[in-house]
Specification:
Layout: H1 3-12, H2 16-25, E1 30-38, H3 51-55, E2 59-70, E3 73-83, E4 97-103, E5 108-110, E6 116-117, E7 122-126, E8 129-134, E9 146-157, E10 164-173, E11 182-187, E12 190-195, E13 200-203, E14 208-210
Antiparallel strand pairs: 1-2, 2-3, 3-9, 4-8, 4-10, 5-9, 6-9, 7-8, 10-13, 10-14, 11-12
Helix pairs in contact: 1-2
């Protein structure tokens, strides 16, 4: 198995630290950042039962890795591990979630056809980012009640300087899978989420790398 295949396998399995070890072992230039959210118990002033309350009870994290592939081409990989603490019919197969990777369009260009993610059949791309739609609903077969996903692709650097790249994950939910209109937007350093009907949403803090 070549380095690329081994790296892909590690990232698909969520073995981020092992993937970084492999890059270091082969002296491949790379950068990594991880953002972790530690939540407290549900607020007494919160009269709603929703994903935000469940999600805040445990640790969830998003990590972003970027590495040099060849010439001005760089691989980027976003890993998400969501922990809710306990399952809920409120947040089973919700409307939609989104992985996203953003960058300055004047500095980077996404390589068409390279982006893919677990359970991400639809990929939206614009000059400042790429979005992969998925669904990381609460696992109802736990404990533990969690879910995992990843999203990756290739971007081309337009010059010889180092520039920021951001990773994003947004989650939407609706009570008992009630229909909701959901849309996502991506811009440099920011993922926006719009949810209609009975739905709601939250966005994880964005890990940032410089490559």
């Amino acid at each position: 198995m070549g380095i690329s295949e081994e790296l892909s396998q590690l990232l698909e399995n969520g073995e981020v630290d092992q993937a970084v070890d492999l890059l270091e072992e082969h002296d491949i230039s790379h950068s990594k950042d991880k953002r972790t959210t530690y939540g407290g118990p549900k607020s007494s002033s919160d009269n709603q039962i929703g994903t935000q309350s469940l999600y805040n009870k445990n640790k969830s994290e998003v990590s972003l890795i970027g590495w040099h592939k060849y010439d001005n081409m760089y691989g980027v990989n976003l890993n998400c591990v969501m922990n809710w603490g306990h399952g809920s019919a409120v947040d089973e197969d919700g409307p939609s979630d989104a992985y996203a990777i953003s960058f300055a369009g004047s500095r980077w260009e996404p390589e068409p056809g390279t982006f893919r993610g677990q359970n991400s059949p639809r990929i939206d791309m614009n000059p400042e980012g790429v979005i992969g739609k998925t669904n990381l609903a609460v696992s109802t077969t736990g404990p533990p009640y969690n879910n995992y996903g990843s999203f990756r692709g290739t971007i081309e650097k337009r010059d010889d300087e180092d520039h920021n790249v951001y990773g994003h994950f947004g989650h939407t939910w609706s009570p008992f899978d009630l229909p909701s209109n959901v849309s996502f937007g991506i811009a440099y350093g920011a993922l926006s989420v719009s949810v209609g009907g009975a739905g709601d949403s939250w966005v994880m803090p964005a890990p940032t790398i410089e490559i």
